[in-house]
From TrEMBL:
<dbReference type="InterPro" id="IPR001387">
    <property type="entry name" value="Cro/C1-type_HTH"/>
</dbReference>
<feature type="domain" description="HTH cro/C1-type">
    <location>
        <begin position="53"/>
        <end position="107"/>
    </location>
</feature>
<dbReference type="InterPro" id="IPR050807">
    <property type="entry name" value="TransReg_Diox_bact_type"/>
</dbReference>
<protein>
    <submittedName>
        <fullName>Helix-turn-helix domain-containing protein</fullName>
    </submittedName>
</protein>
<dbReference type="InterPro" id="IPR010982">
    <property type="entry name" value="Lambda_DNA-bd_dom_sf"/>
</dbReference>
<keyword id="KW-0238">DNA-binding</keyword>
<dbReference type="Pfam" id="PF13560">
    <property type="entry name" value="HTH_31"/>
</dbReference>
Length: 134
């Protein structure tokens, strides 16, 4: 059995979208519940998937309406998916990916990268560079 591991570069604009979405969620939570000490929450799969779908759509230069029409879903539902408010079924996800000209696997790999980015940034911030260890 052969096992391969794929490493995927996260484009700067996607990383910026992730950080902006997280900051917005933190501000909304603080506004609702007031400032308090809390553990940072890991992004939900639906949120990471929504960021990935939006990034793929933007990369293709498609409008929300164009993609919704091609994937046979309503623009409102697609908007909810992209904002991470709704869960997507595998059938609808496959239809959206086909309309984007990509695979479900590629979108899911991007979503996993979105979910792990905050952990990687935190680890990089607290770890000394390799050159400093020598």
């Amino acid at each position: 059995m052969v096992t391969t591991t794929a490493l995927r570069h996260i484009p700067a604009h996607v990383a910026a979208q992730i950080q902006a979405a997280q900051a917005q969620a933190e501000r909304a939570e603080e506004a609702a519940f007031g400032p308090r000490k809390r553990a940072k929450r890991e992004p939900l799969m639906r949120e990471a998937l929504g960021m990935s779908l939006r990034a793929f759509r933007a990369d293709k230069g498609m409008t929300l309406r164009d993609l919704a029409s091609a994937a046979l879903v309503s623009p409102g539902y697609l908007s909810e998916l992209e904002r991470g408010r709704k869960e997507v079924s595998s059938e609808v996800l496959a239809s959206i990916c086909q309309a984007l000209g990509t695979t479900v696997a590629e979108v899911l790999m991007e979503a996993v990268a979105n979910m792990s980015l905050p952990e990687l940034n935190e680890e990089l911030a607290t770890t000394a560079p390799a050159a400093a260890e020598a």
